[in-house]
Amino acid sequence: MISEAAARIEALVGDLRAQGRLGDPRIVAALHAVPRHWFAPERGWCAPDGPGPRRAIDRAADESGWWDAVYSDASIVTQAADGAADPAAGSAEATSSLSAPGAVVAFLELLDVRPGERVLEIGTGTGWTAALLTALGADVTTMEIDPAIVSDARRRLAAAGADALVITGDGAEGVPGGGAFDGVHVTCAVTQFPYAWVEQTRPGGRIAAPWQPEFGEGHKVLLSVTADGRAIGPLCGAAHYMMLRSQRGGFQVPEDTAGAAETGTRLDPRQVTDDGSDAAIAGMLPDVMAVPRREAERFELLLADTGGTSWARVQRTDGAEHRVLQAGPRRLWDEVADAYLRWVGWGRPERSRFGMTVGPDGHQVIWRDDPSHIITPATERST
Fold this sequence. Notes:
Layout: H1 2-18, H2 25-33, E1 43-48, E2 55-58, H3 63-70, E3 74-80, E4 94-98, H4 101-111, E5 118-122, H5 128-135, E6 139-144, H6 147-160, E7 165-168, E8 181-186, H7 195-199, E9 201-211, E10 219-225, E11 231-238, E12 261-265, H8 269-274, H9 278-284, E13 288-295, E14 298-305, E15 311-315, E16 322-327, H10 332-345, E17 354-358, E18 364-368, E19 374-375
Parallel strand pairs: 5-6, 5-8, 6-7, 8-9
Antiparallel strand pairs: 1-2, 1-3, 3-4, 9-10, 10-11, 11-17, 12-16, 13-14, 14-15, 15-16, 17-18, 18-19
Helix pairs in contact: 9-10
Subcellular location: Cytoplasm
Family: Belongs to the methyltransferase superfamily. L-isoaspartyl/D-aspartyl protein methyltransferase family.
Keywords: Cytoplasm, Methyltransferase, S-adenosyl-L-methionine, Transferase
C-alpha cells in the first residue's frame, strides 16, 4: 500500500495548500516520512474538520472508506468516555483522537520547530504528532495521562522508527524533575495555562497551544517565554480541541426559572456570540461561561459563572426587546452586554488584535494590540 499512501498524502497536501494551510516544505516531507495511516485506528469515528458527514469507520468492513477517512481533513476519534464507550459509535464524549491534518499542520507551522530543538509535547494521543516532530528533527518528550493510550502510542512510534520519549503523567504538571525545552507543543485545549510549561521553557522558547476560554470560541496561541519568567504572545486563529483532563468543566443552568428576575434587552443576543467579540469578553469576564442554543427559528443564550453562583437566559423574540431571565448575586447578562458594547466602542477589533500574557504567578491576562494594554475583569487599563 506504499504507492497508494504516497498518492493519498500528495492529494491531502494539495488540498491543504489550496486552502492556504500548508506552506512549509519540511512539513510536507514529514507527512511523507511518517504516513498518517500508521497511526490510525482500525475502527473509530470520523469527524470532518469542516463540512461533511460524521461516520463510523472500520477497516475490516470497508477498507476503501477507511483510507478515504484517514487521508481526509478529519479527526478520528480513538477513545470515548475515557475508554468506557465504543469510539466508533459516535455517541459518547470523545476523549482522545487522531487530530485532523489541517489542525496538526497549523500548530506545527506556528511552533516552527528547528532540527536539534528539545520539544515537550502535551497530549500524545496516537503518537502521530510526536512522530512528525521527530521527522522535523526535534528531540521530543511527549506526555499522556492515560496509560492505555501511552501503550498504544509507544507501539506505533516504535514501529514508525520515531525516537520520542513517551511519559505517562498529567501534562499540566510538566515533566517530572523539570526540563529546559525550546518549545512546548500542546494538543489539548486549556482555559488556564499551567505555569509549569513556562517554567520548563528556555527564555526565547515558544509554547503553541489551543486556548479555550470560558466564553466563546477556541483560539490558537503562540507564547514566547521572556527572561523574567513570563510568556507573551498573540491569538493566531481558531482552534477546536478536547480539553486537558484536569481542566474539564461543567455548565449548568436550571430549567426551572422560578425566582429569576425578568427584564428586557434591545441588544440581540446573537450578536454577542457571532460578531467576533468573544476574545474581548473572555478577557473582561474570564469566569463567565456561555452556551448558545439554536433551534429552528429560536435562539437562546445561556450564561453561568464558574463559581456556580449566578446564571442567565436571554431569549430572542420578534419584538423590540428580547427576554432576559437572571438569578444569583450577579447579573450576568448585564455584565456580558456591557463587555460587548465596550468592544463595540473600541471599533470592533478583530480577534487577531488580542493576545495573552502568563505571569510568574501563573496569572494570565488578555491584552489588545500591545502587551501593555491589559484588559481586566473590571475595567480596561489601556486607552
